[in-house]
Amino acid sequence: MVSFILKRIVSGISVLVAISFFTYCLLYFSSTNIARNILGEFASQEQVAAKEVELGLDRPLLVRFFEWAGQAVQGNFGASWFNSEPVIGAITTRLPITLTLVVVAMLCITIVATLLGMAAAIKRGWIDRLVQGAAVLGDAIPDFVLGIVLVAVFAINLHFFPATSSISPDAGMNAWVASMTLPVIALLINGVASVAQQVRSAVIKQMERDYVRTLRSRGIPEWEILFKHVLRSAAPAALTVLSLKFVGMLGGVVIIEQIFALPGMGALAVQSTSMGDIPLVMGVVLYTVVIVIIVNLLVDLINGWLNPKVRVS
Amino acid sequence: MKFGPKSTVVAVLTAAALALTACGGGGGGGNNGAAATTLTLGSVNDMKTFDPTDAHIGHTMPFYQAVYDSLIRRAPGGELEPMLATEWTYNEDHTVLTLKLRTDVTFSDGTKFDATAAKANLDRFKEAKGQDAYQAASLKSVDVIDPATITITLNAPDPAFTYYLTQALGFVASPKAIGTEGIKTDPDGSGPYVYDKASSVKGSQYVFTKREGYWDKDLQKFDKITIKYLVDLTARTNALVSGQVDAALLDPKSGKQAEGSGMVAHKSQVDWHGILLFDRDGAITPALGDVKVRQAINYAFDRKTILEQQYLNEGTVTEQVFGPESGAYVPELDNTYPYDPAKAKALLAEAGYPDGFTLKIPTVAAFDGVNAVYKQQLADVGIKLETETIPPANLVSDMAAGKYSAATFQLYQGEPWVAINQMVSTSALYNPFKSETPDLTALIQAVQNGGDKSADEAKKVNEYLTKNAWFLPLFRLNQMYFSNKKIDVQPQLQQAVPSIYNYAPAK
């Protein structure tokens, strides 16, 4: 177990290094005029040249990358080139918002999709058709369209929720909950639909297995068979889809944050990338990769815990 | 146990309820702007720094105006009014400006405002070379005459200098704070409001509270002002119509939605829109070197129809680059180039391009729609318009570097001398090929030395630019600023958004 985790951590670090380098290359080739954009339209050519030297933009790619990496290893990610905000500070003020969105949405997806999927598998009939239909519909409607519709109905017409984020240091828990509700719903519909579908087919498959018949014949209550045995065996398929959803959601949240004006990582990523704010972009990319690695590791561990068959010896 | 229909329904409902309560529960909160003495604005641009040497005309002016007083204040209609300077006078040849200063003003850190502080700020502005450094281009030196008087000596007459003192150049910060790192995040000025850092979130919202003991109570109409950065147009529109913000800049389409929800429009014309024909000497595109070709381009556009279809008629067609309030506007010039493709073709043939030519311009997402229309308009007279997509952040710098012979763009219609230095003079950012002719140079000099008559002299520059088709002006666009009925707003002349002083609670 320990060696499995260690192995995964080592491979995670190599992925991290590879992605950092790849991102750095992309930024190197795609961003021009950074010094000019920082200084504004009216700075002289000399000022721009001086700024380029100050930022190290005049040096070769590899030198710059290793210098950045050397600092990053020591935990020093620098500060934004445009507004001097420290990268760590920028990320830690925005991360809670994005993580709350994604984690709450994932929890809701897990609970709702499991219940719906099981109901569809066992009941079949109308609820099954409903889940299947919803899966197609949920996949077809992009979450940002859903977000816009939700705002129009629940914020603007019914005034149940604020239309854009009302989160601020002065605002309490209420503002958080009210500001997060619509974005979370917009994010989760799509996930619920597809995960429920996965749970449904996995449960149906398990219900046909011999062990279910054996358990039934021994008089084990139906709910125990379902939740203790069938669900456990059906979980890996759903978990894999869930982890993919989670990773996908880190990207999808970018647009949702824009629509709801939530000051999360998405806005930061878009802004810093479009301006070529390399220290910030690198910080955002690293954080995303670390989260993806941790989630994948967790999913593998949970899978092993749920199902001894997939445990690594 | 089998799942009966009842228990299924219960399970689904419980799940749905769980989803809602886990992340819901609250609600309301849509009435932030309700109290009478708070003002909440939605801003298109974020505030990068509070350092006044990096202040920039347009969208971010309200942030600076809240915390800093300027030497001169500009009224909504453009008239200059006293602020930190109570009076100002030029010498005879308009090269020395004497300012009388207030003596009862204190900065946030307790330092008193005086002539030395004013000089320190002006000197620092020139040295810092910030976003709007051009405003100090003619500034030679500042001298302290007595604690309440300074004189500013200019290299040459600058008809826009007093206007600049209402803008970035005019903002005054505490001499203890200027030039420090701290001022970027902690403004230290004497403005009507103070920045409440603890309640603000960088990149999201900025909160300002009324300054105690401020010298002009008339400029403090609210107890608290919050400016929210809402870059997304949909979010901005939603925030406005749901009452989260009291005012915000929209566009013609979202403006219709806002009007439908009972919001009040405050339209003003700030920008002119069209194509800047940079390459007037034909360095990259030889055809543009011929005035007949540039005139042909002006004849090729059906301005009225484009305005109707692309901007829902929110604007006024024009053929000149100076605005009606600038003083340099000449109404008759708007009949110079009526839509006439046949004439355009004839002019092209006369110039030796009967089969047209190819013109390459940069495009960014914001202009993709109109550029497609312009491509069609030019194709109708035989000119092939090629567009090259570039990152929005590079548009201005690429234009300024002379990479393109023309570009679709929007420029604000400033005072004549501001506009000339923005797009006409050889040092202008939007004159990358440094086009000039002896005739035009003489006309520009007349404006510079025109003193009180400089706007009249600028009419001749306007005539020259229009007749020689330096640009392809298409229309002056309406700035679609909207507010709810809880507040009164006055648009600010030649500024993207109203100044902070232009808001008041509705009577």
Could you please describe the fold and organization of this structure?
- The complex is a heterodimer of chains A (313) and B (507).
- Chain A has 313 residues and is mainly alpha-helical.
- Chain A folds into 2 domains: 2-73, no CATH class; 87-312, MetI-like (MetI-like fold).
- Chain A has 12 helices and no strands.
- Chain A has helices at residues 2-30, 34-39, 45-55, 61-73, 87-123, 125-140, 143-157, 173-207, 210-217, 222-259, 265-275, 278-306.
- In chain A, α1 runs antiparallel to α12 (278-306), α7 (143-157) crosses α10 and α10 crosses α11.
- Chain A is globular.
- Chain B has 507 residues and is of the alpha+beta class.
- Chain B folds into 2 domains: 2-234 and 484-505, D-Maltodextrin-Binding Protein, domain 2 (3-Layer(aba) Sandwich), CATH 3.40.190.10; 270-478, Roll (Dipeptide-binding Protein, domain 3).
- Helix content of chain B is 29%, strand content 22%.
- Chain B has 14 helices and 21 strands.
- In chain B, the strands form 6 sheets. In chain B, strands 1, 10, 11, 12, 13, 14, 15, 18 and 19 form a 9-stranded mixed beta sheet that branches. A 4-stranded antiparallel beta sheet of chain B has the order 5-6-8-7, with helices on one face. In chain B, strands 2-9 form a two-stranded antiparallel sheet.
- In chain B, a hairpin with a 5-residue loop joins β3 and β4 (80-82).
- The longest helix of chain B is centred in the N-terminal third of the chain and has 19 residues, at 5-23.
- Chain B starts with a helix and ends with a strand.
- Classes of the chains: A mainly alpha (313), B alpha+beta (507).
- At the A-B interface, α2, α5, α7, α8 and α10 of A face α1, α5 and α11 of B.
Features:
heterodimer; A: 313 residues; mainly alpha; MetI-like fold; 79% helix; globular; B: 507 residues; alpha+beta; D-Maltodextrin-Binding Protein, domain 2; Dipeptide-binding Protein, domain 3; 9-stranded mixed β-sheet; 4-stranded antiparallel β-sheet
